[in-house]
Amino acid sequence: MGWKPSEIPTERRRNCMSQLAILGGPKAISSPSPNLFRWSEVTSEHEDAVLDVLRRGAMSGTDVTRQFEREYAAWQGQTYAVGFNTGTAALHTAMWAVGVRAGDEVLCQSITYWASILPVYSLGATPVFIDIEHTSLCIDPDLLEARIGPRTRAIVV
Fold this sequence. Notes:
Distance between the termini: 22 Å
Shape: extended
Strand order of the largest sheet: 2-1-3
CATH class of the domain at 86-157: Alpha Beta
Structural class: mainly alpha
Radius of gyration: 21 Å
CATH topology of the domain at 86-157: Aspartate Aminotransferase, domain 2
CATH superfamily of the domain at 86-157: Type I PLP-dependent aspartate aminotransferase-like (Major domain)
Helix content: 25-40%
């Protein structure tokens, strides 16, 4: 049951390995973007808005949050939207909402941020890592399809 390295054609495995930059292949990213590790511009208006919420002693469910949810839902053409403090919290809630529980498997790409997998463990499920395509750096759809099994409950993309 599930994917085995032997299920990937030998030529494809050989091509992937021979193209790694560490083995002399081309680099996936030749020069980093100057904005890659920079936050967006924070203005005094942003600071004032944050300080206003903090000074009111608000923790969650504030008028600002409800306004954001209404405006975001309208922008997306939806009736409802729920704001979260982190992407990890949003993923955790989404996984719980679709029924991810102990014994389930969640398929996710092998190169990812650790916090996108944390909810899988928190819910008692097992992450199943799928390699990425070397050209897109996204999850390989062929490998993904081969790994879908009876215990697969969700796919993180």
